[in-house]
Request: fold
Amino acid sequence: MSKKNNPDNLRLKQVKEARDMLWRQGNLTWKLEPHQKTLHEFFKKAKSKTIVWNASRRLGKSYTLLTLAIEQCIKHPGSIIKYITPEQKMSKTIVRPNMQEILEDCPPDVKPEYKSNDGLYLFPNGSEIQLAGTDNQNYNKLRGGSAHLCIVDEAGFCSDLSTVVRSILLPTTITTGGKILLSSTPPESPDHDFVKFIEKAELEDSYIIKTIDDAVEDSKSLAKPRLTAEIIETYEKEYPKGRDDVEFRREFLCEIITDMSSAVIPEFTSELEKDIVCNWPKPAYFDAYVSMDIGYRDLTVVLFAYYDFKNGVLVIEDEIAVKEMTTDVLAEAIRKKEEAVFTSSISKEEIKPRLRISDNNNLIMLNDLTRIHGLTFTTTKKDDKRAAINLLRMELQNRKILINPRCRTLITHLKHGTWAKNKNEFTRSRDKGHYDAIDAMAYMIRNVDLSKNPYPKNYGLGSSQDIFYVPNSTQEKHSEWSTFLKPALRKVIKRR
Reply:
């Protein structure tokens, strides 16, 4: 048998032809591991202008970023990619080795040429990947012109990140509709601009977090995974406190470590978030509450909650977070939200809030909401902000508050809110304002009536013990109703 007709050689030839075809199509997902594909797909589907990856060490972030850049260059001739790193020298230590690995099997007719003098990769179709560092303001060489994709690698360690993004990169994408991708492990300080971009991206559904544990889970389907639980254990042993070590949590679990002395809600850890952020089944009967913090320069935040008396938990079911909204528009938004959130599962009727609470920062707005729109708000006392926050912290720590995942502003504020130096006010976030959702939540906690029982006598049983209320829905039948009716049913059956 000739070498030409050897089955192994034929198979290798077919594989090469298939890969060459994928290369020419600009489809390189076959080069990515499962966790890298997740990041890749998230970027492709994200609709926001700016996308943020918070990803662990050892996941091959740079490899994935460069794969995206190459795909853009091949699929769209004449594309301009701006690729930023914290230091100029990283183009040699990180970018070039990853590019060499990716381009190893690239067909010559699509393979780019590295222009060392210009610091760029030039593709045969006219596309470019331009490289620059943020040290010594090297990023200024990327100022001007247009870009179809801007990537900032290890953004959490770039100096002047906000300047780089908003003054240098963003203007280059205006005419092209290009996107900006920020990727990094968490920075050493929560005050870094990267954290502010995370906060904004969380609210816009353009944020993804990928820990080392996520990568291990994603790789279980592989025959020979690069990352395993055993390998992670070897990393853990290198840190004094193992998985609890601050550096391990930051570098591999992607936690944004806030100085506990300045955090408004230090109890709101990733563990607590997993416990209390959930979709809670709405009880048959409940008291509804609305709480509002009015902002001028900052957000106006309105929280919609109900008290689950039987389980002793306050459930924050939904929110409104807006800037510069007129009273008319705000009133309509509140009315629609109340109708959607506070509907009884039994009667299907709207349950009117037992109480609406607000601060007194805009008495004219509160008067208009009451007089014109029929939405009465009671002003809450604000005599001791620290005491109010401490009560909130205790309720959160004891898992007495649950939060629906749709309350993204509230969750973000609980995560990132910090005290100003005077410890009397919160710091101000460039994108999220004064962490107003925390205040709105504190007002809520202060004013909920924990003693009032919303359930009717005998919980739906009629005057005769032989007559029962039959629940309308399957959910009621299997949750609340089963708990309360079964004892009564047993008594009636026994009597008969």
Q: What stands out?
A: Residues 463-496 have pLDDT under 50 and may be disordered. The first helix runs from residue 7 to 25.
